[in-house]
Amino acid sequence: MTGTFTTPGPLHPVATTERSTAWWLTTGGVVAGPLFLAAGLAQGLTREGFDFTRNAISQLALGGAGWVQTLSFVCTGALLVAGAAGLRRTLRRGPARRWAPALVGLFGLSFWAAAAFPADAGAGFPAGSPDATVMSGHGAAHMAAGMIGYLALCAAFVVLARPLASRGLRGWAVASRVVPVAVLAGFMASAASVLAFTAGAGLGLLWLSAVMARLADAPGDR
Questions:
Q1: pLDDT for 45-81, tens place per residue?
Q2: How far is the C-alpha of 203 from the C-alpha of 97, rounded, in Å?
Q3: In whole angstroms, how far apart are CA 28 and each of 11, 85, 202?
Q4: 87-94: long-range contacts (C-beta < 8 A, 24 or more apart)?
Q5: Stretches in the chain below the pLDDT threshold 50
Q6: Whole-number Å distance between alpha carbons of 138 and 164
Q7: Quick one: three-class SS letters along 171-184?
Q8: Does this model's pTM top 0.90?
């Protein structure tokens, strides 16, 4: 009896490829916040008339160099949407696999809306602007986008607490339930202090980076 033996073709490491894709996508969500805050800090320190104690980072999209901040909004949104796709691949099961990526993706879309509808001038910025801020239609849309986006982010943190705990990261899970309180407190204090608003928004961005990086490195759901 004779038989024909064939050399098997190359095996494609599908699982490895999927993990690599998930890692690269998740990296977008990890770097989005730090890059956005670094760009805002650099602009705020160099733009004439900008004062972190009086002006929100969103106002950097105004004036002659405003395109830099607009581009920052667009790029950050794209990175967050990519991060949401990576998060879906990282979370293997449970309600978080459906809801967390959707909420983070909505947060990313809010940055695109913020780019499309710039904030209003006021508090002396751009240079020469009056102190008083007159609310416009695009300014109201900008504020609504930010509010919806950050509410989605806070909800995402609460949802992600469960997969964090399931991976043995109980301290991270507790923090993910506490951070939204701090973020929302900063937003509520914005009428009295712009710095409180900026700190709350920055905390949300940085915690998202930390959580996504930790989930990408931690073992799978139990």
A1: 999 999 999 999 999 999 999 999 999 999 999 999 9
A2: 23
A3: 29, 10, 17
A4: 87/25, 87/26, 87/29, 87/212, 87/215, 89/18, 89/21, 89/22, 89/25, 89/26, 90/22, 90/26, 90/215, 90/216, 91/163, 91/215, 91/221, 92/220, 92/221, 93/221, 94/162, 94/163, 94/166, 94/221
A5: 1, 5-7, 9, 11, 14, 221-222
A6: 38
A7: HHHHHHHHHHHHHH
A8: no
